[in-house]
What we know:
The complex is a heterodimer of chains A (about 400) and B (about 425). Chain A is of the alpha/beta class and about 400 residues long.
Amino acid sequence: MVASNAIQGKLTPADLSTIRGANYRGAGAADTTDYWRHYESSETERDLTYADRLTLNQLRVFVNYASWQADKTAFRRNLVDLARVCNRHHIGLMITFGDTQTFIDDAGTIKRDQIRGLVTELVSAIGHEPALAFWDASNEPDYNSAGSPPDRQEKRFEIARLIAATLHEVDNQTPVTIGMAYERNMEALADAVDVLSFHNYLQTRAEISTDIAHAKAFAARTGKQVMDTEIGCIARANPYDVTLEEHIKAHMGWYIWELMITKRWGNVHGVFYPDGTVRDPAIPAAMFGLFRNRSDHVLLEEVNRESSVEKNISKAQAWLDNPAGSWDEGLNAAEPLANLLEAGQLVAMREPPTRAIELLRQGPPNIAAVRGLTAKYIELLRPFQKSSRPGA
Amino acid sequence: MLFKASSLHVLLKTSSARLTAAILLIAMTAAGAAETNSVGRIGNLATGIFPIVRRANSRTPADTSSIRGANYCYAEYGGHSGMWNNYSPAITERDLNYAQRLGINQIRCFITYQAYTNNPEQFRRNLLHLVRAADQRGMGVMPVVGYSRQMRGESYPGAEDWAKFLVDTLAKEPGLAFWDVCNEPDYPPTNVTARVTFARHMAGVFRKLDGQTPVTIGFAYESTMEQCVDDVDVLVFHNYLQTRGAIRTDLDRAKKVAAAAHKQVMDDEMGCVGRANPYDITIQEHMNARMGYYLWELMIVWDGERGWGNVHGIFYPDGTVRDPSIPMAVMGIFRNRSPDVVLEQPNREGRVTRAISRTRNWLASTNSDWSAGLDLAEETVNLLESAQLVPLRELPTRQVALLRRGPEDLPTLRKLLEQDIAALQPYER
C-alpha cells in the first residue's frame, strides 16, 4: 500500500483515488530528449500555474537515457528544478522512464549498466525531493510499434522489472509503478511494483468503465492501490469529458495526457496553449467535475427568443446588399452572427466563428472575406429564425 | 491636504458608516493617495478604487472590481416569485454549492413583496436563510427589492414600511453586501421618468434606514446610470451588447463616469445567448477592464412554461451544465482566438477512416446488430464531439445515451449513423 510506503513530508498521496494529474512536457518540445535539452525553469513555473488553476495535484514527466547523456550536468540541474517548482506548487511528481527499448542493443542484449547508471543518477538527484511522489519504471512496455522484433515486449518487460528492482534497491521510500498500456498487462507485472498503473484510451463508456472495474478488482485482490496514468485522446474516440466522468464516478485517480498542447501530440491531446488559453473548455470543465447534461432533461437554447436572429440577419443582409457598405460596418454586422452561433452552440467550434472575425479585425480590410463569412453565418442561423418556444 | 469645507458639511450630515468612509478618504488624501474633485468628494483616481460604505466584517467588497457574481433564483419554479413561494433551504444550499465551485463571491437575488404578504414570518426566515447560507460559503448577497403596484403610486404608500422590514431583517447580517433598491427603472422605455423618480426616492429611503450597507440602482443602461450618480453609493449598470467593441466602450464609459463621481461601479447583469452576448466573450471583456460583474444567471431557470433558461444560465438542477465554456470563463479560462492555434486532427491514427468503414458495413448489412450499432455510434460521436467538429446544442453523445436507454429503434440509429459519417467524412484525410 502507498500509505505504508509514503514518506513523511512528501507529496505521495495516501489514497490514489485523490489523484488529479496530468502528463507534462513543455509545449514546444518535440519529444522527451528535446524537452530536457531545452528545459526552461520559467516555462515550468508558468505551466504549473496553469496546473494550479485546474487544482491538479500530480504531474507525470518522462525522462530517458538520451536526455541524461546529452548533458548530464544540465539534466540534473533541470530535474531538481522541476521537482522544486512542483513542490512550490504543491504538486507531486512522477518520473517516468521513457524509450526503454533503447536499453536493448542490436544483438538483443539488455544494457544493464546503462539502466543502473540512469536509475542511480535519478535517485541521487531527486530521491529526497519532497515533490517526488512516484517512480514509473517504464512507460508502456506492452505497447510496441508494428515491425518491432518479436521478443520486444518480453525484453521490455524484463527491463521494466530491472528498473523497478533497481529503484527499490536504491530508493526504498518512493513507491514504484510501471505504466502499462493495457490493464490486462498490468496484472502480469503486478509483483514488481508498489502501486499499479494502467492506461485507458477506450472508445465507449462501457469499455472504459469495464476496464476500470477490472483494474480495481485486480488491485483489491493484490492489496495494492491502482491509478490510470494516461487518459483522453481526441483521435481515439476517447473524449476527455467522457473519460474523466467515468474515472471520477469510479473513484479512480487519473492523469490526463496532457497538460499542454504540445508540438508532439498537440493536434490530438492537451488542455492549455502556452498563453494559458484553451482549445476546448469542456476539458478543464470536466477536470472540475463540471459535465454537460446528457440526461433526458435538457433545455435547448432559443437564440431567437427576442428576435435577435432575425434582426441581425436582416442587418447583415442589408450590408451584403449594399455595395458601398464599409469594412467596419461589415465586421459589426458579422460579429453578432458569430456570437449568436457560438452562444447558442449552433456551430462546430474547431474553428470558432468569433476567432475568424477577430482575425479579420486584426488584419487589413478584406471585404471579400467578411462577405463570405457573413453569408455563411446567415445560412447557419436561418434554421433558428423561428422560435420553437411555447406560445411563440 | 486638499479638502473643501463644503464637503465636510455634507459628510457631517451622513450616517456613521458613510462618515467612516469619509474619514478614510481624508486619511487617504493626507497620505497623498487621493484627490478631491470639484464638489469636494475624495477618492483614489489612480486605481479607481474609491472608499465604499460598508459594515465591518460584512461581505461588501472593498473593491467592486473583485466581484465575480451571479444573479440567482431557483431553476425549478420559473423565476423569483416561484422561488420565494416555494422556498427550500435544501435547494438554496445545493445551488450555492454550485456557485461556490466556480469561485462566485456575490449573488444578486430579486425579492418579491407578494411572498412577504403570503406569510411575513416565513418570508423573514427564508431571507435570513438565503443570506446566511451565502455568507457561510463566502458570498455576499445583493437583494433586489420588488414592490407592489400600489407602492409605486402617488406618495409611494407602504414602500417605506416594506423597506424598513427588509432593513430590520437583514441589515445586521454579515452576508448582506448591497441593496439594489430597484431593477431597471429605465427599461422598458415607457414611463421611465416616473420609475426612475421612484427608484431615486427608494434609494434615499434605504440610505436613511441603513447607513452601513451600500445602496444602488440596477440601471439597464449605462447612460441612465450617469444621471443618478448622486442618488446611490455605488454605480450599477447592465450590459448585453453584441460586439466586443460595444461592450468595451460601455465599460470604459462607466468607469470614467464612476471616476468622475468618485464612486465605485459594477455591472450586475450580463451574458445572454439570445442577445448575441456570449458569456465567455462578455466575461473576458469585463475581466480585461477590471469591471466586477454579476452574470445573468446561475441556474437554467424553467418551470416548463416560464423562465429565462432557454437564453440564460449555467447549471441544471442536477449540477450539470449546458455549455462548459460559461463556467470556465467565470474561472478565467478562455478559448484561444489568436492566430496561433493547433487544430484537432481526429484521423491522426486512422480512427476516422476505420470508424467510417465499419459504420458503412453496419449500414449495408441487412441484419445489423443493435448493440454493435450503438457502439459504432458512440465511437463516431466521440470523435465528432472531442474534435469539436459538430454543433453541440443537441449533443450527439446525449442522443446515443438516450438511444441506449430506450427500446431498440434501428431506423433512428441508422439515421444517426448516416449523419455521423457525413460529418466525419471531411476529416478522413
